[in-house]
Amino acid sequence: MEKIVIKGGVALNGEVQVGGAKNSALPLLFATLLADGTSELCNIPALRDITTAEKLLKILGAEVKAADHCYRIDASRIESVEAPYELVKTMRASVLVLGPLLARCGHARVSLPGGCAIGARPINLHLKGLEQLGAKIKLDHGYVEATADRLKGAKISFDMPTVGGTENLLMAAALAKGETVLENAAREPEIVQLAEALNSMGAQIEGAGTAIIQIQGVDKLMPLQCRVIPDRIEAGTFMIAAAITGGNVLVREALREDLEALISKLKEAGVSVEEEADGLRVQGPRRPLAVDIRTSVFPGFPTDMQAQFMALMSFAEGTSRISETVFENRFMHVCELQRMGADIQIDGHSAIIRGTAQMTGAPVMATDLRASASLILAGLAAHNTTEVSRIYHLDRGYEKIEQKLAALGARIWREQE
Fold this sequence. Notes:
Elements: E1 2-7, E2 13-17, H1 22-31, E3 38-42, H2 48-60, E4 63-67, E5 70-74, E6 82-83, H3 85-88, H4 98-105, E7 107-111, H5 124-132, E8 136-140, E9 143-147, E10 155-157, H6 163-174, E11 179-183, H7 189-200, E12 204-206, E13 212-216, E14 225-227, H8 232-244, E15 248-252, H9 260-268, E16 272-276, E17 279-283, E18 293-294, H10 306-313, E19 319-323, H11 334-339, E20 343-347, E21 350-354, E22 363-365, H12 369-381, E23 385-389, H13 401-406, E24 411-416
Parallel strand pairs: 2-15, 3-14, 6-7, 10-11, 18-19, 22-23
Antiparallel strand pairs: 1-23, 1-24, 3-5, 4-5, 7-9, 8-9, 11-13, 12-13, 15-17, 16-17, 19-21, 20-21
């Protein structure tokens, strides 16, 4: 087991490069299953979740070659339509093979995600949509078994915006017969890139980025060639790293249009954010001001930035309230921040943070991907030494984050427990 050690109190300065978006790369990798031939994807981040996706593609029969953040995937032969529990339990996004396999092969057998009993973070919206496209769905010993001779277009209205559901239905409907309309669709930038990628393969999709997406099904798709967009959550994390340390950092390839909600709240907190030719320059104040946030689906404040913003508010002047509306159990980082001296109280689905001018490093434990980032951010600004354990969560979504932060002047390194 590894841990990350941080000696805080250093203002970060310099430039940092944002990598490819994990949440865009994963559906794009699985979209290659829709076409006979070799697809090429570049700017793929080197992450645990990407490695899991690669293993799954190989199990299904695809040939995968990777070098220098680029992948060549030959999905000419699909030898299996089963995504086993051993892989799906480690990465929920594995369920995104369901739509492509069903559309191309007429059959898919995919394990339910670990910890998912069609309850919290459910995939029932995926399954309901596929049934409306004509699929027969059966749950059998923890697996979703889906069959269809050929999917047929339909009008599908999601009960709530779902990123994974929108992605699965986009890929499935691309090869369905006739027109499919997705209402109350997710609007995230990753949805837009997937739709654009599918169109480059020969699909006919309009409206991505809005609540209504129209898909005209086609008989066949060509292999995919594309470059993954920058990761807006990684960019946001580095922006807060600059803000929380009172630093001055150019976050290269950070896209303003993907980060408007975060930028607005950072400015409200007294952080300077200026657009430059190749990214966003962030300058932190002597001490941030307390502001309230409420997470929401895009274009609202992203739930994936909630924990990082809470770390910033822990040092703020005044009292802030952070309300979590997307996931019901996303305050597990609170008790770890409290170990470092944060004054935080939970009030239902909200956290009340009374900012303190000084926090102290402590041994802390990461409970999930974004929680681990929040603890690193707090450690950068805290006095003395912070040790973050269980960082395998971190490696699911951040590529060499300690090296990128060290290049900005942070005293941070990785070592064995």
